[in-house]
Amino acid sequence: MAELTYREAVAAGIAQEMRRDPSVVFLGEDVAGAGGVFKTTAGLLEEFGPDRVVDTPISEQAILGAAMGAAMTGLRPIAEIMFSDFFAVCWDLVANEIAKTRYMTDGMAGCPLVIRSGNGAGLRFGAQHSQSIENWAMAVPGVKVVAPSTPADLIGLMAASVRDPDPVLLFEHKALYPTKGDVPDGEIVDELGKARVLRDGSDATVVALALMVPRAMEAADMLAADGIEVTVIDVRSLVPLDTATILASVAETSRLFTVEENPRLCGWGAEICSIVGEDGFWDLDGPIVRITTPHLPLASAPKLEDLALPDADRVTATIKTALG
Amino acid sequence: MPLSGAPYGEHGIVLPEPFDESLKDAPIDLEVRIELFRKQHEIRQLEKRIYDLFLQGLVRGTSHLSIGMEATGAAFGVALRRDDYSFATYRGHGHTVARGVGPEPIIGELLGRATGLVGGKGGSMHLTSVEHGMMGCYAIIGAHLCIANGAAWSAKVRGTDQVAVAFFGDGATNIGAFHEAVNYAANYRLPTIFVCENNLYMEYTPIAEVTPVKHPAADRAPAYGMDATVVDGNDADAVYLAAQAAIERARSGGGPSIIEAKTYRQGGHSRADPGQYRPDREVEAWLAHDPIPMYHQRLLDLGVGEDRLTAIIGEVAAEIDRATEAAKSAPEPAAEALWTNVWADGGSQWRN
């Protein structure tokens, strides 16, 4: 067991897979020589060389096109899109090409690749470098979507994503990069489509993702101090989605709260609420409540950004009010 | 006022240059030329059949024909090695045929049959046959130039000498992905061959009205440190020679190439377009610059008997007739096919 930062876990996860499989290659802007603008990929160029760790021009379409064409012809590329906001300039490759290739070719061709990206707010970068876009991604049939919240999950889900025969978008949360966590020794391989129950409580189920997971856990502590015990579930994977774990928990607690960083409309929690509303309706004792960033662009000023994102106080207050 | 100087809608007429008769003496084996002849007929006759099937109401959706543009696809189809990669556009029937895919799965795909090349899930704009090196037809302009780079990069990393060819129209040269792809390929000296089939019209608008250079692909090449070749895209020999040179360069580590093949689509952009925006004089001149009768005459001039050429045309026609009937009588996809092959496990499950 070692303690790693979430930042260090990125390179550790990529390196684990590159050591295992020579067909794994890695490309992106400033990822090789500079080790990544968030220093997440330091050391990879030195270990694996410039043929497998490639600094690209600022050309997101060229990056994802290269990853896709390589994936179709025998490699297992990992591509970095530096900030997830930049998916907007290469969405054609993601939504029209990579996601649809296997279906449009009726299984003849596939894109076993990983696109990893720095997602989310908290760094005061303003509206174009802070978005949580996991809900854009999950709206497109044909891509898998994961968003780990701890260093161990990051390594394990990176490995599962690289080994998956289908395209996976892996969202790292930028505000989690300095956080630390225990990482088991040896190879770590996780599973896509498995949520994790982090805390058990009988009064409500709280479902969260990425940066919202530690905030939900903090809220759970605050609620416990007031005698309210909640279950906290880290969704981890939006596609495939572990609805069974969520539905089983709601069957126990009878109440559901989602804690989402994405802006309100069509956030991932809306899909979970819809599923619980359809499949778990008779287990519910009260309204489902979504706690989200409002439907706003994000502001840069710390005070305004902090007001926009759900925090432990807001989660706590919302749950207390809803539970009466 | 466009940069070309002509008032909007009054673009200059672009007429073909006469065929270069000296290409008759080009160093191309006669059997290679017979193959170029056959492939051009395979494409022309298939496209004409697809057009007939439209008129019969059997082909739904849209379709983009390459009648008049067969020489480029045929030339690359002959010049490429079996394990090389082709990436084409929504106007890709011809490029698919050129890589050796038969007419039956193509017609079946257009008729929405279970026997279609991709099971009815792709349609006219998404023909793919990986076993033939036909890595897909891409219907969003520009993306596949970037994707072809990936296949080229992969060949380099895997240590093979395969090359990747991206075919695209003149309109694609004004989208960002073109410039990203060419810069990327040039920078990493990838074995990618960019083939612009310049048919003078981006869709309905003349390319000259929206582009400040004469050769929309070739004139951009110097910006990326590349030379480009402009060829008569209606002369299979001219394209074949250019293809051979570019393929050899790519295979030997010399990096990417841009070829601009000047051609003309004899019909409109798509099924919905009668192409009436084109001046009569221009259309007539290009109809007279048809790649297929010219090549027929060239082979006669080279001493090939008319009977041999007629026999090839007849073989192709018979196969297309047979394929049409087979496709027409094939079943539609089973309802279950809707749910298959989203994922590699064959299914479409997104939740448990």
Describe the structure.
The complex is a heterodimer of chains A (324) and B (352). Chain A contains 12 helices and 14 strands. Chain A is of the alpha/beta class. In chain A, α8 links the parallel β10 and β11. In chain A, α9 packs across α10. Chain A is globular. With 352 residues, chain B is α/β, with parallel strands linked by helices. Chain B has a single domain, classed as Rossmann fold, CATH 3.40.50. Chain B has 10 helices and 6 strands, in the order ααβααβαβαββαβααα. A 6-stranded parallel sheet of chain B has the order 2-1-3-4-6-5, sandwiched between helices. In chain B, α1 runs antiparallel to α9 and α5 runs parallel beside α6. The mean pLDDT of chain B is 95. Chains A and B meet through α3, α4 and α5 of A and β2, α5 and α6 of B.
Characteristic key phrases:
heterodimer, A: alpha/beta, Rossmann fold, 2 domains, 21% strand, globular, B: 352 residues, alpha/beta
Average pLDDT metric of chain A: 98
Oligomer: heterodimer
Number of strands of chain A: 14
Q: CATH topology of chain B, what is it called?
A: Rossmann fold
Total domain units of chain B: 1
Characterize the largest beta sheet of chain A: strand count, sense, and whether it forms a barrel. Answer: 7 strands, mixed
Helical proportion of chain A?
25-40%
Low-confidence parts of chain B, pLDDT < 50 over ≥5 residues? none
Q: Termini distance of chain A?
A: 43 Å
Strand order of the largest sheet of chain B: 2-1-3-4-6-5
